[in-house]
Amino acid sequence: MFLVDSHCHLNQLDLSKYSGDLSKALAHADELGVKHFLCVSTDLKEFHEIAALAKQYLQISASVGLHPNETNISHEPSAEEIALLAQDEKVIAIGETGLDYYRSSGDVEWQRERFRQHIRAAKSISKPIIVHTRFAREDTLNILKEENASAVGGVMHCFTEDWETAKAALDLGFVISFSGIVTFKNAQDLQEVAKKVPLDLMLVETDSPYLAPIPYRGKPNEPAYVRYVAEYLAELKGVSVVELAEQTTKTFFKIFPHAIHNK
């Protein structure tokens, strides 16, 4: 079995149970069939650390971006600055980027402009976008349309919205990625959305070290646990976990063609 953790933050993992050794955490993931990892940037200050991990490990790809809630920065990066960092051969995506009104209040035009700069960077180098949206469904979709983000497509990561939002994103050429949230007992609405998303337009992720799935909810998350997300979704959709793994892996490398397929 070959699974991809399509969204994780390897540089933020709690590695205490692995004696601080990331290679041991990756080996444990491999034992569960998780063999490729997209390590996602949330802060440009951490990008070089992420890029170094991607160069060290064949099975790690990287992204470059600034999370919509990140405010501890010296200046707002331009599309040109983001695109320049994304020239690195192990960078396969721009993001995570998007809108998050849950943690931000007041005038958030700066957040919308940041999102636009990321989309423009992605289009300038023809790499897909990793989109984060929370309490900002309408504005997120509007900006994706206005900036013609469908030219590069990408993924709606850690999806928690309704079917109408999922359908609109799918129509724009984006795929839907499900995290451990979908396994939670109180996530019935999201589970119904997962049933409707076509298997070939779906990805799985951990968003580790956050949002550990059942049976590890409330504990530090790690890439190995994407196996449990995959098993849950497979049962939900009435397919084998092997079939779900094969299809989500195929979709990942289609959406992110710059990723090295470490067979």
Notes on the structure:
- Helices cover 38% and strands 17% of the residues.
- The protein is of the alpha/beta class.
- It has one domain: TIM Barrel (Alpha-Beta Barrel).
- An eight-stranded parallel beta sheet has the order 1-2-3-4-5-6-7-8.
- The longest helix has 17 residues, at 109-125.
- It starts with a strand and ends in an 8-residue tail after the last helix.
Brief summary of the model shown:
With 263 residues, the protein is of the alpha/beta class. It has helices at residues 22-31, 47-56, 79-85, 109-125, 137-146, 163-171, 188-196, 226-237, 241-255, and strands at residues 3-8, 34-39, 60-64, 91-100, 129-134, 154-156, 174-178, 202-204. It has one domain (3-255): Metal-dependent hydrolases (TIM Barrel, Alpha-Beta Barrel), CATH 3.20.20.
Q: What is the mean pLDDT?
A: 97
CATH topology call: TIM Barrel
**The CATH homologous superfamily:** Metal-dependent hydrolases
Q: How much helix, percentage-wise, in residues?
A: 25-40%
Number of strands: 8
What is the strand arrangement across the widest sheet? 1-2-3-4-5-6-7-8
CATH architecture descriptor text: Alpha-Beta Barrel
Categorize the overall geometry.
globular
If helices are DSSP runs of H or I spanning 4 or more residues, what is the number of helices?
A: 9
Radius of gyration: 17 Å
Number of domains: 1
Contiguous low-pLDDT stretches (5 residues minimum) are none
Class computed from helices, strands and strand pairing = alpha/beta
Order of helix and strand elements from N to C terminus: EHEHEHEHEHEHEHEHH
Q: How far apart lie the N and C ends? A: 11 Å
CATH class: Alpha Beta
Strand content: 15-25%
Sheet with the most strands, sense and barrel status: 8 strands, parallel
